[in-house]
Amino acid sequence: MRRIHPRSSVTLSQRGAGVWHLAGVLDMTSVPTLRDLAHALVDAPEVLVDLCEVTRMDSAGLALLVDWQGQARRRRTALRFRNLPAGIAAIAEVYGLGAVLPAEVFGTREPLPASAGPA
Question: 53: pLDDT confidence band, cut at 50, 70 and 90?
Fold first, then answer.
């Protein structure tokens, strides 16, 4: 299992081929480090990022997900998100980002099994 620990209180862990788990606080202090990690995320044809353990996320976190999605599209990777925090999912819908941020489950806290791959 690969882990990336930026300086702030967020962890990005690879849980299998194309499956990543994001945990902690996703805000303006953690986003700068995570932004540059998109190349590690999009190294598979399909990628799923589970946010079930994101404890707090602000607009900087939302902007990060949009940035990752753009990088994935440029590399022809299908990037999806699971368990977006409910408040962020609602903001994404208001701003018309539902199509930009494909999400399997909005506002729930159902973690993926440790060995699960994209569905």
Answer: very high
- Spatial neighbors of 41 by CB under 8 A, at least 6 apart, are 20, 47, 49, 68, 71, 72, 77, 79
Q: Which amino acid, one-letter code, is at 84? A: L
Please, which pLDDT band fits residue 34 given cuts at 50, 70 and 90? confident
Among 58, 55, 104, which residue's Cα sits nearest to residue 79? Answer: 104
Instruction: Name the DSSP letter for residue 30.
Output: T
Q: Which of 26, 17, 9 is nearest to 114 (CA)?
A: 17
Q: Strands 19-26 and 10-16: what pairing?
A: antiparallel
* Residue 51 token pair: 């946010």
Separation CA 57–CA 94 (nearest Å):
16
Q: Where are the alpha helices (DSSP H) in 22-85?
A: 31-35, 38-41, 59-74
